[in-house]
Amino acid sequence: MAYASRGGSSRGGSGRSAGGGGGGANTTAYAVAGILVVLVVVLFLVLGKKKPVTPLPPPVVPASPPVVPPPPKAGAKPYPTITEAMLNEGRNLVRTFDKDAATADRLVSESVKAKGTGDETTQQAKLREARGLYTNIKNQWNDFIDRLPTGNGYETEDVAKHYFPRESGQVQKYLKNLAAMKTDQK
């Protein structure tokens, strides 16, 4: 009995068909891999380009609303009214004090250094100059609040604290510095 061999053909091959068709799967894999490589390269080129950065416009900062004094307590008499020009004048006046107060603060610091080195003459000269600046601030503020209206039981100082709370506080800080200097000045 003639049986054909188990895994071969009558020609004695290895079981594959003739004609050289065994490389089709490899060719397809190489083609797909090539396409993927091209796509990846294109993707990196497209995403890798730097786009021109447009600067953002500066943020819009709304102007701070004017300080509106609190309304009088229920049952309290209303404060005398003052004009917008008077409000602006008081606020601008206190802004001018900042430079003089900074100079006075610097002079007080210099006087402390002079005292530490034993130079009493320089110390007293610096204190006199600082005291003059603080006194000038006090006098200008007092002259301003003396022009404020009074009425309904409110004095000018009350009106100043009502309409100029921040400014009055700033001037009070300067006056405390003036009072503190009196102990060192001769």
Q: How much of the sequence is in beta strands?
A: under 5%
Number of strands: 0
Can you give the mean pLDDT? 78
- The best one-word shape is elongated
Major beta sheet, specifics? none
Which structural class should the secondary elements be placed in?
Answer: mainly alpha
Please give the share of residues in helix: 55-70%
Distance between the termini: 141 Å
Low-confidence stretches: 7-15
Overall radius of gyration: 45 Å
* Sequence of secondary-structure elements: HHHHH
Counted by DSSP, the helix tally is 5
Report what the structure shows.
- By secondary structure, the chain is mostly helical.
- The protein has a domain at 84-181.
- It contains 5 helices and no strands.
- The chain has helices at residues 24-48, 84-117, 120-146, 156-163, 165-181.
- Helix 2 (84-117) runs antiparallel to helix 3 and helix 2 packs parallel to helix 5.
- The termini are far apart.
- The model is unreliable at 7-15 (pLDDT under 50).
